[in-house]
Amino acid sequence: MNRIEITDLSLPELKLYTELNEPQLLHFYEPNGGIFIAESAAVIERALDAGCEPISFLIERKMENGFEYLFERAGEIPVYVGELSVLRQLTGYTVTRGMLCAMKRPLMKSVTDVCGEAKRVVVLEDITNPTNVGAIFRSAAALGMDAILLTKRSSDPYYRRAIRVSMGTVFQIPWAYTDGDYMATLKDMGFQTAAMALSDNSVSPDDPLFGSVERLAILLGSESTGLSSETIEKSDHIIKIPMSHGVDSLNVAAASAVAFWALRVSQ
Predict the structure, then answer these.
(1) Is the whole-model pTM more than 0.70?
(2) Which has the least CB within 10 A, 47, 51, 154, 193?
C-alpha cells in the first residue's frame, strides 16, 4: 500500500478529513460529483462492494494489521497512518473504530433506475435528520424494501452520520431524489401509495388488504410535521400503527421498521 506516516494533521491532503464540512464535501468537484467520508472497516467494505471509488485512508496505527485486504482492494491510494494521540485531534475520531476513507460520490440514479423492478418502495418526505435517514435505510435494507426515494429537502444519505447510522446500507439499497410530483410518478409506474399518518381514517400496517398489493410505496414524513396534508389526501391508503399506554406515535425510524416488516413482500 502507499503508506504515509503522519505525526500531525497539517498535510493539505488531509483537509478532506480535518476542515471540510458536509456541504463542502458535497460540492468538492463541482460541477461534477463530490466526496463522502466512510467510517469503519465494515462500512468501507460495503462502499467498495457498491463500486465507490476511494481517494485515501486515514487510519490509526493498530488498524494496519488485519485490514490489508481493504487497502489492496483500494489500489495505490494514500493510506495515512498515525498514532491515536494524533488522530484524536480530529473531532469525532474516537467513534470511528480507527479507520476513515474519503471516497468519490457515485453518479446519482433516477427514480426510474431504482424503481423499475421494485415491489416495495420507501419515500422520505422532507426528513432532515441524518440519524433518522440512516436508521430508515438500515431497516429498509434489512426488512425487504427494494428502493428509497427522497425529496430534495431530505438529509443526504451520504452525510457522514447517515452513513454511520445506516451501517453502510446506504450503499446497498438503491435510492434517488424525486423531482416534482412524486405521487403522480409513482402512480404512473403502477404503485399504490400508503401514507404513514396519525389519522382516524387509517388501517394497521398488518391489514390483510396489503397482501394483494403488488407494488406499494410507503410514505414517511418528518419527525416534527409528518407528511404534508396534500400527500395524505392523494394517498391510496393511510397507515397508523396501533399504540398503547396513551403513546400517540413512535419515532419515524422506529415506526418505519414496524411498517416495513408488516408490509414486506412475503417470501
Answers:
(1) yes
(2) 51
